[in-house]
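Posting here for the record, re: adenosine-5'-triphosphate.
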Amino acid sequence: MRAREAFRVLRANLAVAMAEVDNPCIVVTSATENEGKTSTCVALAESVAAAGSRVALVDLDLRDPDVHRVLGGHCDVGASDVLRGHRTVEACLQQVQFRAGHNEPPTGLQLLAAGPAVANPTELLSEPRLRPLLHSLTSIADIVFIDSPPVLAVADTLLIGQLTAGAVLVVEAGGTPVPTVQRTKDALVRSRVPVLGVVLNKFDNRFAPEGFRVELGYRSVPDHLVSPPGAGPGPQPVREPVDPEAEVPPTPLRAPLAGAPGRTTPGPRRP
Ligand SMILES: Nc1ncnc2c1ncn2[C@@H]1O[C@H](COP(=O)(O)OP(=O)(O)OP(=O)(O)O)[C@@H](O)[C@H]1O
Ligand SMILES: [Mg+2]
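Prediction output follows.
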């Protein structure tokens, strides 16, 4: 299975989960840093946009924002401005163009980047400030994807998640211990954030135990998930798709992971 197909499966699974709720916002998160939240969030948003939905993508990882870099946008204005009451959502949106396939026409999605760094992200993400921001996005999009910080590092994602239909939990295969995943899922559920699905990222089939091998795997993150550092503001070119023969990164799963309870110490979060 290729990357695009994997995200189509994930998209279809989410559509089923979303059919039962009346909230078009989905937060993408993980237990700890670097598991692939941003990569998954961008690829998922592009997959849904390519299928014809109006998509907004907002970067609420206010401490370590990356979506603008991956999409080739800028972070000069964005969510932090809106949350502080300095700008409207409409004034901060960036239209991002990409191609879902080599022969596909350009597709667009709306990006609300994180905006300038702020000293008090958790306070800014409180319900009275965040709800109107999400409301503005849902008035211009059919579905809103939210990139977020790691659950075990800061309280931000639990606050964000409470205003969404639920979370897509990214798990780094072979990287995140099962008790850590369990603890993360418990934290989400305790905060009334349903886990809509789990993406097993960076899965390497070569190391899967006998009986667990599946007909997919990955070699590396597809090029279209990585933009050159320092991509600046201004009109952005249409992003070309990756080689359709590139192998898939994530394995979408529908059910939340089960695992033995336990405690681990989360890694440090950048200031
Ligand atoms: N499936 C994959 N295969 C290989 N590399 C990947 C894959 N997914 C993500 N990566 C790489 O892993 C790194 C972390 O990815 P990403 O930025 O998406 O994670 P993150 O969880 O958003 O990180 P952070 O916690 O810093 O926000 C990046 O260098 C990215 O290119
Ligand atoms: Mg990230």
